């Protein structure tokens, strides 16, 4: 069974990671989830454990689950998928900041990485975020572009998490070499 790691950031769309994990499991993938500390306030690790059948990794539970969680997560992974990825997460990845489980896992990767951003449209359009995205793309990181529309804060524009089915299809294409 092919291993996929889903990293969940603290976007309001974090709840959609549950549906994404379910799609991968239903398609026969072995799914492990890593939540940022703030993402645990948006979606329950227990819910994701029930959906994946695997332990969910957080900074708080890291030592309970596995001594070197970032190494366990990256080992034999076919894909690292950050969905939803916040501006903070993208910035950490692009600048080599490794101060939590998700960012240390990213830096240890030996598999392809894919990012599905989700944030306020003004944040997504900010030159710093766009520069970080371009840097990551130049390293071969794949992106599933966010959608345009109304976001949770009431603003309108490009920044809403892409449709879960599109993220799933793009990820499967990478894993299956399509």
Question: Can you describe this structure in just a few lines?
Answer:
It contains 9 helices and 8 strands.
Can you tag this structure with a few keywords?
178 residues, alpha/beta, Rossmann fold, two-stranded antiparallel ribbon, 8 strands
Rg on CA atoms, Å: 15 Å
In the CATH scheme, the class would be Alpha Beta
The total strand number stands at 8
Ends distance: 18 Å
Description of the structure:
This protein is an alpha/beta fold and 178 residues long. It has a single domain, classed as Flavin prenyltransferase-like (Rossmann fold), CATH 3.40.50. The chain contains 9 helices and 8 strands. Helix 1 packs parallel to helix 2 and helix 1 crosses helix 9. It is globular.
Describe how the helices and strands are arranged.
Elements: E1 3-8, H1 16-26, E2 30-35, H2 45-52, E3 56-58, H3 62-65, H4 69-74, E4 77-85, H5 87-94, H6 101-108, E5 113-117, H7 121-125, H8 127-138, E6 142-143, E7 147-150, E8 156-160, H9 164-175
Parallel strand pairs: 1-2, 1-4, 2-3, 4-5, 5-6
Antiparallel strand pairs: 7-8
């Amino acid at each position: 069974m092919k291993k996929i790691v889903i990293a969940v950031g603290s976007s309001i769309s974090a709840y959609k990671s549950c549906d994404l994990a379910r799609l991968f499991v239903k398609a026969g993938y072995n799914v492990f989830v890593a939540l940022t500390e703030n993402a645990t306030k948006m979606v329950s690790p227990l819910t994701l454990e029930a959906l994946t059948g695997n332990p969910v990794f957080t900074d708080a539970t890291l030592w309970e689950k596995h001594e070197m969680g970032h190494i366990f997560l990256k080992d034999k992974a076919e894909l690292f998928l950050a969905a939803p990825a916040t501006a903070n997460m993208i910035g950490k990845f692009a600048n080599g900041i490794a101060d939590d489980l998700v960012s240390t896992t990213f830096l240890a990767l030996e598999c392809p990485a894919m990012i599905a951003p989700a944030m306020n449209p003004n944040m997504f359009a900010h030159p710093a975020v766009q520069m970080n995205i371009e840097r990551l793309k130049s390293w071969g990181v794949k992106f599933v572009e966010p959608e345009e529309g109304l976001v949770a804060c009431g603003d309108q524009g490009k920044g809403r998490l892409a449709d879960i089915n599109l993220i799933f299809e793009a990820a499967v294409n990478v894993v299956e070499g399509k």
